Amino acid sequence: MAKGLDIGTMNIICAEKEGEDVVFMQQRNAFMNLDSSDLTKNMLDISKVLYIEEEKGISLLGEDAFKFATIFEKEARRPMSHGIISPREKEAIPIMKLIVERVLGQPRSKNEVLYISTPANPVDTDMDVLYHKKTMEALARGLNYDTHVIDEGLAVIYSELSDYNFTGIGISVGAGLTNVTLAYLGTPLMSFSIGRGGDWIDEQVSKSTGLPKEHVTHRKEQISKLSKQVKIGSPDGAITIYYNALVTYIVQNLNKRLAEITPPKVAFPVVVAGGSALPEGFFEMFEKNLRESKLRVEISKIKRARDPLYTVARGCLIAAKTQEEGKRRAGPSLTEQKVEGKTEKKKAQKKSK
Amino acid sequence: MGSEMHEDSLTEGKGSSTGLLRRGLSIYYVGSMFFVAGIALVALGSAFVMIFQIHYGSEADKILYTALFLGTGITLILIGINLMIKQTKKGYYVVGVSAFISSLALLILATNYLHNWYYPLISYVLALYVIGFLMLLGNAFANVTLWIIEKSPGPMVREERLTKTYTDEEIQRDIEEATRKSIETTASGLQFEVDDMGDIKLGKYSPKTCGLITRIKDDISEIISLKQTMAPGATDKWGSIGVDKASTQLAETMMQKKVEKRLFEGFKERILKRFGKQKNN
User: Fold this and answer.
1) Do the Cβ atoms of B201 and A53 come within 8 Å?
2) ipTM
């Protein structure tokens, strides 16, 4: 057995295989504080809401936190911001551990392989993802998984570009960050992230329209199409404007980064995934922008991931299954970012023999 | 060649990266004298061959002197060349040993020719001389090769150092890169531990797993097209589930790359080991 885990700013999604299905377990990466009272606790217990009791009060976890925040017009707290553990919410790490535990479950076998997605270092903000990466590794390792990490963009490529021998550009437009990876035959040649994603759109729309951020997020997730014809006063117009700005920003940064490397002279397919790539019309907007930008590499195809929200988790699962396969054949690790040392690998090889 | 060597000894104050030692002027001149003496002896030996028309039936003395002049001359030429070029420490030992071996062979020839000049002594003397000759020749060749390796990148590097100017942006990028590497190296050695939950108490509803569950039947259309691309007309002999197949395909791609990398790295390691050893010497 093997699992893939996408630890995103907005959602934590676990992918695993059951028979001929891939099962995705999804939970919001959020929590919300409430005052503690017996009445509240009873109500939450009856409603089967996941919560924890602390000295300060009650904290609702996951999707329920988000729902309650929308109902009470309060702000849900997020353990992560801009793709990494929020420096303001470090106390939320145990809460995040709880959410990860609930999504991931216990390993079904000893040393079950788990691949978790982590963002690449951003190019436009002074931020380092290393601390986040190590913390996430530790969280998963604490659950007794044989944990490995993989770039989010590479996970997109593993999931969607098997037709192209895992060569191409994978873009994951998440809530906190947008991750981009260019890979050749499954090996990343360039990985970076951009400090803008769905949250940036929410912030900009919220500033422009005066609506609370949670409302904008909710509306953005409900929006079926990024249309050019919008009602006056609705946030839809602002959402479309900032989506367009985000796409332009991503493409410009991609082009800038491509100028710094010498990629192989092949035509690269581009695949777009991520929770913020869900609205209808986003892909068309992206494709148009990319085609018009005269990218520094030849583009063979631009495709939308089949299930953009689950692509990264699926890519992690593929990496984990591959690692498992490699273990059986005593083959190589997919990434150099292996958590366990060489001795652990040797032990695993001996066991498999 | 000689003048270049001369310049080297003056310009390079210390031992080089390949282990070649600094060679003083006196050694160079001694080597030159050996070389000239050797040339003279070989010329003399050759003259003997022509003047006395040396053949199998010639007088023993004539044959002996001719052989000694030629043998000593060749040895002196090789010793001279070896002394004129820069040597490693081992190189000087090799010159000494091989000069001794060759001289021994010539001495045995001089003392035993003609009365005791029978098999197997002839073979032993010839073998000794050939060994000495080859050692001198090989040592000269090896040290010249080392000198060429050492010298060839030198001027380019020096030139670059003189002409290359770095912009502030490049310097900043280098600093950032070095800092990033340093952070990564430190972090890779760290083991992060997550604290226990402490005072946190779970509510009554605390299932082992919870979240929105979505089941998606794996799409195998891309796998079919992959199969057709890789092996047109081939039949599928194994599982048809998308994730399985995509991961196996990925494992195979990575395995291929790893094997290629190992081959190259093995070659590279051998080269580095060899030069590393010489450097230590």
Assistant:
1) yes
2) 0.70
